[in-house]
Amino acid sequence: MRAQRGPLKGLNVPLTAAAVIVVLGFLTFGAWDPAYAEGVFQAASTWVIGTFKWYYIGVVAFFLAFALFLMFSRFGDLRLGDDDRPPEFSYFAWFSMLFGAGMGIGLLFWSIAEPIWHFQGNPFVEEGETKAAAETAMRLTYFHWGLHPWAIYAIVALSLAFFSYRMKLPLAIRSALYPLIGKRIYGPIGHAADAAHVLCPDPRLASREAAHAALLAAGAGPAGGAAPMTGHEGRRTPWEARWREGRTGWDRGGASPALGYWLEAGAIPGERILVPGAGSGYEAVALAQAGFQVTAVDIAAGACQRLRGLLAAAGAEAEVVQADLLHWQPAQAFDAVYEQTCLCALDPADWPAYERCLHQWLRPGGALLAQFLQTGEEGGPPHHCPLPAMERLFPPERWRWPDEPPACWPHPGGRREEAVRLLRR
């Protein structure tokens, strides 16, 4: 099956061709419509994480336990090569290669970036940038970069080394299946195993290198003129100041009448609903009182504290998360998103990124209950959200628009809100 000459000499031609076709297919899909591809991949990621999180944690723990068992059992003295062949590399050279090739820039980058990332917010704490968040951030980082990943690397490496250098089978992942299927590793099952081994790491490597490119771009910014990246802290500070000073022109001082209309009409599907940029939280409280499982997210600590107080006073329960929405991702997609104050509060330059987030947060067929604030003025926040611009921001190939015109509701200060119920495709 391996080519004897030509540019593919030494390669399994059918396997190589299949892998190249699949990789090129993913690249073409992503290049043709990056926004749509991002939504599809993020939705798939959200589903996998929500469905198989328990499996991932269990398998990683099993790998660590199995590696420790091999180390301290009689199998720990098993030679991977021939009985009479000494090791080719010293321990020092071996560990140098492990850290140089196995970790490399990943360890240098994420040893700092990952604790800071989790410190700003993670699924295991209610509020970021606290002592509890710092402790959890370090536990998560140790889990990702401590014994657990090394156990996975070790088990896979042992499988390849034992069956190749000891059993004289091909240096391929299919050889690890030999005790189970025997010589059928040379057939379609073996080809499928090798193809999966080639294809599965590609998205991880691509995302990792993209993060490293962003790191290099940020580091070159001050010297090379590149714009610095906007971080969580940069977004959080002005919103805290606005809350302290009461500069929240999008806040109507109570729940919107549009919410009452949608509740009465039964227009909110499912049970789980997200309120991004929850602000004072009037709608989050009303939805919680209506029996929905509400998650309210805001970047300002003052807003989150106020909302928790309103919930306690109303005897209602909701999950309140302090996080930068453009860098926040739930573990599971929502049935509905109630958007009233976040879009008009964001800089219009961030609107495309926010639209992608909304698409990712919703399950297919989920409802976006949007109220587009009409200020008729330049600048902001709050920013003017004209309907033609919204139709371009939420394109019909990604969102199903209603046939009827938007319902209009007055807003304090002579403004108005145009309420639209969009469905995620």
Structure write-up:
The protein is α/β, with parallel strands linked by helices and 425 residues long. The chain has 2 domains: 13-218, no CATH class; 236-424, Vaccinia Virus protein VP39 (Rossmann fold). The chain is 54% helix and 12% strand. Strand 2, helix 13 and strand 3 (319-322) form a beta-alpha-beta unit.
Secondary structure topology:
Blueprint: H1 13-32, H2 34-72, H3 91-103, H4 105-120, H5 131-145, H6 147-166, H7 178-181, H8 188-199, H9 201-224, H10 232-245, H11 257-265, E1 272-276, H12 282-289, E2 293-298, H13 301-314, E3 319-322, E4 334-339, H14 342-345, H15 351-361, E5 362-374, H16 387-393, E6 399-400, E7 407-411, E8 415-424
Parallel strand pairs: 1-2, 1-4, 2-3, 4-5
Antiparallel strand pairs: 5-8, 6-8, 7-8
Helix pairs in contact: 1-2, 1-8, 2-6, 2-15, 4-5, 5-6, 12-13
